[in-house]
Amino acid sequence: MIALAVQAVSVFDHYGFRNRMKTAKTKPAARDLSELPKPGQPAWWESSFDPNSYKFRDRVLFAG
Q1: DSSP letter, residue 52
Q2: Which residue stretches of the chain are H helix?
Q3: Exposed, middle or buried by CB within 10 Å (0-12, 13-18, 19+), for 56?
Q4: Against a cut of 0.85, is the pTM above it?
Q5: Which candidate, 35, 63, 59, places its Cα nearest to that of 47?
Q6: Alpha-carbon gap, residue 24 to 13, rounded angstroms
Q7: Could you report the per-residue pLDDT of 2-58, keeping only the tens digit for each?
Q8: What is the rounded CA–CA span in Å between residue 28 and residue 31?
Q9: Can you tell me the distance from the alpha carbon of 45 to that of 41, in angstroms, rounded to the nearest whole number?
Q10: Distances 35 to 7, 26, 42, 63 between C-alpha atoms, Å
Q11: In the prediction, which pLDDT does 17 show?
């Protein structure tokens, strides 16, 4: 039963990836992480250090 659930998640993940690749050719969303943020704009990583953000919780949880 667990193997079936893992396979189902894998299929959904695969289709999500295919959809992102299909739209990536027309709408690139990649960012250059070495590029500094423009004045007045937050850096891409700031939300990971906001205690009210889910990214903060994930960073703390997975960083150990």
Answers
A1: T
A2: 2-24, 54-63
A3: middle
A4: no
A5: 59
A6: 16
A7: 888 888 889 888 888 888 788 766 665 666 666 778 899 888 888 899 999 999 999
A8: 9
A9: 12
A10: 38, 22, 12, 25
A11: 86
